[in-house]
Design a protein that fits this description.
This protein is an alpha+beta fold. It is built from 2 helices and 7 strands; from the N terminus they run ββαβαββββ. The chain starts with 20 loop residues before the first strand and ends with a strand.
C-alpha cells in the first residue's frame, strides 16, 4: 500500500525575521513580535549594523522585558535609548543608532565582543 500525502502538505519554511522598514517620518520600524530577549537583541543588533549613524529605530515588541533590556543594551553598546514611543496598539521603543557602537558577541548580544 502506498503512503498518501500528508494532509498538512509539505513542511513550511521558518518565518522570516522582518527587516527594518522605513517610515514616513524618516525613522525605521522593526517588528519584533513576541521574540524573547536574546532573539530581539540579535535582530536589533543586526539591523543596527545596516542602518546609518543617527537613524532612529522604533522597535515594536510584546516582550514584557524589553523596557528593561533595551536601555541596558543601549548603555552597553553605545546606542541611545529613546524610551517608549507613542502607542500605536503594540508597545514600541525608540533607539538612536550609533556608528561607533561597541560590537557584541554573535551568539550573545548582551556581551561585548
Amino acid at each position: 500500500m502506498m503512503d498518501s500525502p500528508s494532509p498538512a502538505g509539505p513542511p513550511k519554511a521558518p518565518a522570516m525575521i522582518p527587516s527594518a522598514q522605513p517610515r514616513p517620518d524618516g525613522s525605521y520600524l522593526i517588528d519584533g513580535g513576541d521574540l524573547g530577549c536574546a532573539r530581539l537583541l540579535i535582530l536589533l543588533r543586526d539591523e543596527a549594523a545596516r542602518l546609518p549613524d543617527g537613524a532612529v529605530v522604533h522597535l515594536q515588541t510584546t516582550d514584557p522585558v524589553a523596557p528593561i533590556d533595551l536601555p541596558a543594551w543601549c548603555r552597553m553598546t553605545g546606542h541611545t535609548y529613546l524610551g517608549p514611543m507613542p502607542d500605536e496598539g503594540v508597545p514600541r521603543y525608540g533607539v538612536r543608532i550609533s556608528a561607533a557602537a561597541a560590537p557584541t558577541r554573535p551568539d550573545a548580544p548582551w556581551h561585548r565582543a
